[in-house]
Write a structure and sequence with these properties.
heterodimer, A: 152 residues, alpha+beta, Ubiquitin-like (UB roll), two-stranded antiparallel ribbon, globular, B: 726 residues, Aldehyde Oxidoreductase, domain 4, seven-stranded mixed beta sheet, five-stranded mixed beta sheet, 18 helices, 26 strands, 21% strand
């Protein structure tokens, strides 16, 4: 069945079974490789994208129920025009292997849109469902604080 | 897919972007293949002045792509941003051994650095000839050589797109410490922006024309044999599903990824019962009961007379269970295997040895198979990467088409080789002055590496399943079994068992070092308490190595350590503990202090503060080093507090993140304070693993400091803590 989606401001029509997780459509049809497959279970956050303004797990939502525009990390900002969260992650060197970083950036960007001045507990709560195995947490926290203007 | 070095150079390096690779050395010194004795094997200068460094080591998320670039930039006197580091392609790069053991900077760095220094010297000699002036009168800056008369020539003009045609002679001196300019700077990671914008080329992103998506179907039980495959169970599914079977290997391919996943889930496979695993509660006993060969790791004095002379003798047993690498991205690889040759895209740590092992599995000469290393999810040792590469290779051979295989979460959790469960017993004797005069250390463990290593094709799951022979490399169990302290009578023994007591295991960050250090550093604290001595002063009293003493003194200063014996006078909900490790007895020195707070009612532990003093010799990139140290601290806290692979008699039952929790943001420390001790005149010894080792003991020591109770098995779960605290 053809399914129409708006992703990063552009409309796409894709051919996929109704129950295909959004993640596979983004990666394999639209070649948007920013969102990652981590668990397919909504447990780790590597696949996070924005549905409207809300961070969601694209591995666990069927493409056919997507009813709002999708933003992926590719649509959040670019090297020439980075989103403040992306700029902050680079400034803090907040990555190691980087596999989880898509989810960290997208979750943080959604948090700051909803709550521009979160306190430490609110940042940690927002990111608690995003797993990082390299142990880059301290830098990610610093990056979110920086993006929120909480540190110089 | 073959690209000659010359074609590669002429392409201006455009191919570079995502493809590089590593090797596997397993702690042995690399003997360079004769072809790698050529300078051209390591370095090329383009007509545009851009420099390509070829490395056998690979980027596993630790930052060595950047650090290697710094080595080359400094030794060659070329701006850092003109260096491209090409990693881990078996056709293009030198074999530097596997990217393992925190030894990329230690073993791989000097090779790259030496090549750059010799290239600079060669270019100086060329300029000397051109200007008919002695080399001593020339100076170099930014890839431009100038003489005293104002003449200058660029590297590109001298050698651009041409070969050096010179053998490395290892005689050229590398720069003296005081002349280093790029080495020692916190240069931002070159690949990090791509990771933040979603554009970084992971192997997971690779698509080839006509590629099929593959998934594997594996037995739940180790060693289970294939009984039957019911192909009719998937015949009505969409996507041109094909079942691929050879020996005991079963996989499916389909046109689309979600179709392959559905087919793998639907395929009815019957397995004959495999090995019955011991009950988890009996694992510590089972680890000690596997038949073993006793190996003397270290001996000084005479152990029996040492204990005879002791006023106080204590003994303790420690245990660490199986743990996971637990990569966030499940392993992925792409293979395009033809009749006579093929190409693999793999996130392996060991491009050459994995290539060789898979070639043996495919019955193909190794030189007909090219492995192009491509970055994957962080691995921290041998996760599923090599197995998944073998899966892709076998399925591509069977399908006759390029195949991309990505493991599912349950594949990675269930089938990645686990970090080894280990049991340790330590007996110590103190004299009347509170000095340790006898130390008897025993550890029970099989070797830690089953990774592809010049075996007959069976050191991967697929290779084993089609009946190829495997070979275990006997490394890892004794890592840091011998402690750094000097005791007059010390006997350190490894009971090296032949096989893992329950689960398939291989190298996990630090191999046996975190387990051995947990026992050694916990027991030093037990002896310090027995001697009523301050734990850090007690350690220093038994050390002779000045660098070891220096990190302990520095971490005491950094953490504002209150020198006194543990435990505290009054039972407390907070405590502090120390730990130390001289990694692998030759490499990096690290000392840590951990502060804990304990909820006595629930047994829940919090770690608000960790301090680390770290001496890895010459520091190439201070911020990169800090990033590695922070990562080690957090991962090691996770391993100490939470991590234990669950299994039943049939196999692993921790098959997702609920079944194998790792640390989350709410539980990471408020502060990790780090003091880097830079020793520019010392060799580089790396930061990838050392800090993991002392963390678990430091936490246990802090728990003891707070409560007077000793916890000797990981993980320090609320249940276990509550049981100890009552």
């Amino acid at each position: 069945m053809p399914i129409t989606l708006t992703v990063n401001g552009k409309q796409h029509t894709v051919l996929a079974a109704d129950d295909t997780p959004l993640l596979y459509v983004l990666r394999n049809e639209l070649e948007l490789n920013g969102p990652k497959f981590g668990c397919g279970l909504g447990q780790c956050g590597a696949c996070t994208v924005h549905l409207g303004d809300v961070a969601i797990r694209s591995c666990s939502i069927p493409v056919s129920v997507v009813d709002q525009p999708i933003t992926t990390i590719e649509g959040l900002g670019t090297a020439d025009n980075p989103h403040p969260v992306q700029a902050a992650f680079i400034a803090e060197q907040a990555a190691q292997c980087g596999y989880c970083i898509n989810g960290m950036v997208m979750t943080s960007a959604a948090l700051l849109k909803q709550n521009p001045k979160p306190n430490e507990a609110e940042i940690r709560t927002a990111l608690d469902g995003n797993l990082c195995r390299c142990g880059t947490h301290m830098r990610i926290l610093r990056a979110v604080r920086r993006a929120a203007g909480m540190t110089a | 897919m073959k690209t000659s070095r010359r074609e590669f150079l002429q392409s201006g390096g455009a191919l570079i972007v995502s493809f590089s690779l590593p090797l596997e050395i397993l702690g042995q010194t690399t003997q360079l293949n004769p072809k790698y004795e050529e300078l051209d094997a390591w370095l090329a200068v383009g007509a545009d002045g851009m420099v390509t460094a070829y490395c056998g080591k690979v980027e596993l998320g630790t930052g060595i792509r950047t650090a290697f670039g710094q080595l080359v930039a400094d030794e060659l006197d070329v701006p850092f941003d003109r260096i491209t580091v090409l990693m881990g392609d078996t056709d293009l790069c030198p074999d530097q051994g596997a990217t393992v053991g925190s030894n990329s900077m230690y073993r791989g760095g000097p090779q790259v650095r030496q090549a750059a220094a010799e290239a600079r010297q060669t270019l100086l000699a060329m300029a000397s000839t051109r200007f008919a002036t002695p080399v001593e009168t020339l100076s170099v800056k930014n890839g431009i050589i100038s003489d005293a008369n104002g003449r200058s020539v660029t590297y590109a003009e001298l050698i651009g797109n041409r070969q050096f045609n010179r053998k490395l002679d290892q005689k050229v001196q590398i720069k003296a410490a005081e002349k280093l300019g790029v080495i020692g700077k916190s240069i931002p990671r070159v690949e990090l922006p791509g990771k933040v914008f979603g554009s970084h080329a992971y192997v997971h992103n690779l698509r080839l024309p006509g590629i099929l998506h593959g998934r594997v179907v594996r037995p739940p039980t180790p060693g289970a044999m294939l009984a039957s495959v019911d192909e009719s169970s998937v015949q009505n599914l969409p996507g041109n599903v094909r079942v691929l079977q050879k020996g005991g290997f079963v996989g499916v391919v389909a046109d689309r990824e979600e179709q392959a996943i559905r087919a793998a889930n639907a395929l009815k496979v019957t397995w004959k019962s495999g090995r019955t695993l011991p009950p988890m509660k009996d694992l510590p006993a089972a680890v000690r009961a596997v038949p073993a060969e006793d190996k003397a790791i270290y001996s000084s004095g005479e152990i029996d007379s040492g204990f005879s002379a002791a006023r106080t003798t204590i003994t303790a047993q420690y245990f660490v269970p199986y743990q996971m690498h637990a990569s966030i991205g499940p392993s992925c690889a792409v293979a395009d295997i033809g009749k006579d040759s093929g190409t693999l895209w793999s996130p392996t740590q060991s491009s050459f040895l994995t290539r060789n092992s898979i070639a043996a599995m495919l019955d193909m000469p190794a030189d007909k198979l090219r492995l192009i290393w491509t970055e994957g999810s962080g691995c921290y040792g041998q996760n599923g990467a090599d197995d998944c590469t073998a899966d892709a290779a076998l399925m591509s051979q069977l399908a006759g088409k390029p195949v991309r295989v990505q493991w599912m979460r349950h594949d990675e959790h269930g089938n990645e080789p686990k970090g080894m469960a280990m049991a340790m017993t330590v007996k110590g004797g103190l004299n009347e002055n509170g000095d340790v005069i006898a130390w008897d250390y025993q550890v029970w463990s099989p070797p830690h590496s089953s990774r592809p290593s010049g075996d007959g094709g069976g050191n991967t799951l697929a290779g084993t399943q089609i009946g190829k022979p495997m070979r275990i490399v006997p490394v890892g169990a004794d890592r840091n079994a011998r402690c750094t302290y000097t005791f007059p009578n010390n006997r350190t023994t490894l009971h090296q068992s032949r096989e893992s007591a329950a689960l398939r295991a291989s190298a996990l960050r630090g191999l046996g070092s975190p387990q051995n250090t947990f026992a050694n550093e916990s027991f030093m604290d037990e002896l310090a308490a027995q001697a009523k001595a301050d734990p850090i002063a007690f350690r220093i009293k038994h050390l002779k190595d000045e660098r070891a003493i220096a990190v302990l003194q520095e971490v005491a200063r950094l953490s504002k350590w209150d020198a006194r014996p543990s435990p505290q006078h009054a039972r407390s909900v907070t405590g502090r503990g120390a730990g130390f490790c001289h990694y692998d007895n030759y490499a990096t020195y690290v000392a840590v202090v951990v502060r804990v707070s304990i909820d006595i009612k629930t047994g829940k532990l919090r770690i608000p503060y960790v301090a680390v003093a770290h001496d890895c010799g010459l520091i190439v990139n201070p911020d990169g080093t800090r990033n590695q140290i922070e990562g080690n601290v957090i991962q090691a806290i996770s391993r100490a507090l939470l991590e234990e692979v669950q299994f039943d008699s049939r196999g692993v039952t921790s098959l997702d993140w609920n079944g194998y929790p790792i640390i989350r943001f709410q539980d990471v420390p408020e502060e990790i304070a780090i003091s880097l001790i830079n020793r520019p005149a010392e060799i580089m010894t790396g930061a990838g693993e050392a800090t993991t080792s002392p963390i678990a003991a430091a936490i246990a020591n802090a728990i003891f400091d707070a409560t007077g109770k000793r916890i000797r098995s990981t993980p320090f779960s609320p249940q276990r803590l509550k049981a100890v605290l009552v």
